[in-house]
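Quick one:
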Amino acid sequence: MSAQKDASPAESGLLNRILNKVEVIGNKLPDPAVMFAGLLVIVWFLSLIFAQFSYSEIDPRSGAPVVINNLLAPDALANFLATMVVTFTSFAPLGVVLVAMLGIGVAERSGFINVGIKLLLNNTAKFLLTPILILVAIVSHTAVDAGYVLVIPLGGIIFYAAGRHPLAGIAAAFAGVSGGFSANFVPSAIDPMLQGITQEAARLYDPNILLNPLNNWYFTAASTLVVVLVGWYLTDRVIEPRLKGTEVDGDPEEMPQIEEVNARDRKAFTAGGLTMIGGIVLLVLAVWPETSALRNPEGDIAAFDAPLMQSIVPIIFLLFWLPGIVHGYVAGTFQQSKDVIMAMSKTMETMAYYLVMAFFCALFIKAFGDSNLGILLAMKGANFLQSLAVPGPVTLVGIVFLVAVINLFVGSASAKWLLISPIFVPMLMQLGISPDLTQAAYRVGDSVSNIITPLLPYFPLVVVYCQRYVKNTGIGTLVSMMLPYSVALGIIWTAFLLLYWALGIPLGVQANYVYPAG
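Output:
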């Protein structure tokens, strides 16, 4: 699986022609910020048109038929202007990205991250960098969205420092973080969140049903191996060979330099590393007591209402900011406090383009949600699948495909499941398929198309990461890189779920394949 091997003729022929075509077409799209502004206008006019009709699809949030809201109505336009600032400042990825990057920026510009990467490279075989990077990206889900602001840019840094194409590293990390969103051997907050939604949907059919929060844990843990192997093969045998002709023309000052690690750097990294370890130990000690303030009232640390889970981003900030400062002073890259502030300021300068894109992206996503166009699309697709009345395995494949398509328009995992679970879960219970299995199928579909939709809130950020190395990177470049991962994971992961089901391997804790449980 080494990246040094040439791709097969088939891979360098038809596949490359397809991906090159996707890249050319995609890059003809307007700048992402302009595209989101244009989509905002399109949503406005679509809402005006579709608001003139009535629909039979039921909105599960209200129990009433879906109503398309006309965003060009005078009161809607007035509300748009009145809430524009709040819409932007409350855009969820904005605070996550900026706060985390403040800490990571100090760690990077002090040399702490770069020295750590060089030491890692000295002790890791080059051909193992890809699977290790993908595995770390998958595990990063435990820290919610940390992978987007930490692991993906590190993927580019690691590959570039190893003499490999940085965009291949970003692609591999993106595939693990987002394409493998539902693969993780470490339980995370997403497990109880989805289980709670599934249980409520199942109670529409069986009011007394109870599901375990880890009802998909065994399957998601096993899926880790699937995502790593698929991502490893595609990165080293398809993506990186295709990138050989793509020149790295980014600003050298914004890219890590490949230099030997001297004694002073080693000493500084040791001091910074011990600071980070000390911070982790203090965090563990703070969380350990059952009465810890970082736990929720029930004593759980993984639930969404647990202060620990709500503090992930500040924790990331501190765990990189403090070691970065220590490393900088020991290594001599920081001489005074002003140097630390300047490092943070320089990092924010690199985020200026993302801020512009995030502004228009936030307005578009808010308008799309307010219009209810996404809900209507989801409901019509789900009702069509229900009307087919096909066998269970075929229905599961259909669910994976439909969810993957809906995911192109409605990015939030919880929002989509809230919309469609009241239809899918009771429908399949009537066919004898358990809510646990239906949820597993949903999680596969929810993951595989994340990496090819520009509507993913973090998609513009990944474009910015790529532009750090290849200046003319556009939406088409990123989509063409990620499309093989999306297609391969969609096929192989779905087949793995069906095989998992056929072999009767437990899906998770207290999980069942059939309903009612036999």
